[in-house]
Amino acid sequence: MNGLRINKLRAVLTDIPVLSERLIGIFLILFAVFSPVSIAGTHIAWLLAVLFWLVKSFSNKKIDFKRTPLDIPLLIFFAVILLSIITSVDMKFSMKGIKSAIQFIIFFLVVNNVKDIKQIKRIISVLIIFTTISAAYGIFQHYAGIDFLRHNEFLDKILPRATGFYGIPMTFAEHISLALMIVAGLLLFSGGTSDFKSFIKKNAGLILSLSIIAAGLYFSFTRGAWVGSLAGLLFLLFLKSRKIFIIGIISMVIITASLVKFCPDSRVSKRLLSITDKKDISVMKRFFIWESSLDMFRAHPVTGIGWECYRKVYPDYVKYRGRKWRKFTAKAFTHAHNNFLNIAVETGIIGLGVFIWIMIIIFRESAVIYKRIKDRYTKSLFAGILAALIVFIISGMTEYTFGDSEITMLLYFLLGLAFSIRRLE
Fold this sequence. Notes:
Blueprint: H1 2-34, H2 39-60, H3 71-86, H4 91-95, H5 98-101, H6 105-113, H7 117-144, H8 169-188, H9 196-202, H10 204-220, H11 223-240, H12 242-262, H13 266-273, H14 281-299, H15 310-317, H16 326-329, H17 339-372, H18 376-395, H19 405-424
Helix pairs in contact: 1-2, 1-7, 2-6, 3-17, 6-19, 7-8, 7-10, 8-10, 8-11, 8-18, 8-19, 11-12, 11-18, 12-13, 14-17, 17-18, 18-19
């Protein structure tokens, strides 16, 4: 009897790694489901995936850790964040940000648990489907002026701005713009047919998703995401061919000029033109924030003011810089509206240096990986992920995209897929 129980226990213990691996795969899919829809669901999905990754490792009595060139830089960046917390102007306040600092684990989770290209295809397909749903909901919000989930102040304005399921147009736009690059990459490098009708028929689903996501991005009226997406698309065109790249630049100039000149809604035209208008309220606000942020950086240049302490310290550095700035002095801004500047303020020159180092390694390694990839799908997906990184960097010049958990989690997830392709290829 005892022997039978021992055998059953052994059978259960033997099944734990297999069960854990299946559950990890399910939660990676759920990450792709929730990413465009729910921040809480996204957090739960990756945390449970990490939990079962640990269970699998303990059951196997070893951690099969797959090395990548980003391992050391990401761990050093986390160490720098911890250093900034220890030396923070308010350590207790800064400690609250540790939950956002550990999101880099998503990268290691994906790299170490994606088994094959088929799994990557499933994950990407799910991500595209649910991003398309999110974008479609954003289009509905713009035209109907209704948000079923919350009271949405952005829909009450003269120019209703789509917010999707997140309630903030900037977050919505930045998120779907990353997915837009994935779809554009898959379409642009799909190949396989020279006949236009066959191409349309073969890629009808992707074309539909591209159209809906692009429309959702447009109706968010988020200028930074617009510019970032244009930069990402130009990057894809450059990868495709120099000739197409030049045609793409000319086309974008013509389309933009046409929107400004002939757009029936003058509010949209003004939104486009306000990108370079220093008299625009949101543009003025950013200049004011950047000047105050530089003062904060000068006061704490080495290790910064502390991770996520910007909102805590900012009021102390607000200055009257003449009458035109007074409208902003009473407002409590929570970030620097610039990735590089915000990281410099919170983690000092050390953190900024490591962050730039990470970006350099990604692009350096990507150039090598891209040339080696032979499979058409993985090559197109890899190009799309690189374009998404371009979007993240460019749109992050006027917005702190690294401070949005929705964006950061997806970025780490996509980078994990990119370096999984590196390993699998």
